[in-house]
Specification:
single chain; 250 residues; Membrane-bound Lytic Murein Transglycosylase D, Chain A; Arc Repressor Mutant, subunit A; two-stranded antiparallel ribbon
Length: 250
């Protein structure tokens, strides 16, 4: 299947000119047999809505793609079962499993389930807190560091920043991590050379929001670098992922 490269544009609401994705959508991971038609039926929406929400025209989904879908997100509580959650929202258990790529009935407290066919009515939780403008800052870093790479690589760059925020070893905010210096050394080259101030593409904005939802193609990485790097200190670290021309390590 032809992979889509188009970019995310959402028209429901805005946060400082960035889409307020958390308030209007969930992130769904495409599987091998998915199509715009089948997903429109699962999430009780139109093909046109899916196309507009993700800004692509062709029915060209690839397995592993992450797309935005109009759906509620439910946080599993102690004592919940797959059947109870499905019954609560009056949807078939099979649809609940499909939307969450599950074959069995196991769910655990704290897990977040996409509820297909149920429009969102509360703001879905991001994995970290953020202040006004920080998602935009993250998008600018992603654009500067991975502007020519795939969406997955862009998401992974965003995830590295979030991993640092969560680690306790770095600054505790997105802006703190991005602008962090040790002595005279900036942690991110775009801050030093000014590219952090350039406008991000819509795809980089989309990647920032997906990373904020908790997607981490970097698999827990704390650093990233280009394949051409000769920095032996970086190469000596544990590699967690390689995406396009980028290597992710911790």
């Amino acid at each position: 299947m032809k992979r889509f490269n188009k970019i995310f544009v959402i028209t429901l609401c805005f946060l400082l000119s960035f889409p307020a994705v958390a308030a209007s959508a969930a992130v769904y991971t495409v599987t091998a047999n998915d199509s715009l038609s089948s997903l429109s039926q699962l999430f009780k929406t139109s093909i046109n809505t899916l196309q507009q929400s993700n800004n692509f025209e062709e029915d060209s989904l690839s397995s592993g793609d992450k797309i935005f879908v109009p759906a509620h997100v439910y946080k599993v509580k102690s004592g919940d079962s797959m059947y109870q959650v499905a019954t609560k929202y009056r949807i078939p258990v099979s649809n609940l499993k499909k939307a969450n790529i599950k074959t069995g009935n196991s769910i655990v407290p704290g897990e977040k389930l996409i509820i297909p066919g149920v429009k969102p009515y509360r703001i879905a939780d991001s994995v970290i807190s953020y202040s006004s403008g920080e998602v935009g800052l993250l998008a600018r870093l992603i654009e500067a560091e991975a502007g020519g790479e795939s969406l997955q690589a862009k998401i992974a760059v965003g995830a590295v920043v979030i991993n640092r925020v969560q680690s306790g070893d770095w600054a505790s905010t997105i802006s703190g991590v991005i602008y962090q210096k040790f002595g005279e050394y900036y942690q991110f080259t775009p801050v030093k050379n000014g590219m952090i101030n350039n406008s991000p593409s819509a795809e980089s904005k989309r990647a920032a929001w997906i990373a904020m939802f908790g997607s981490d193609p970097s698999r827990g990485a704390i650093f990233y670098f280009d394949l051409k790097s000769t920095n032996q200190w970086l190469w000596s670290k544990t590699q967690t992922a390689q995406i396009d021309h980028m290597v992710f390590v911790k």
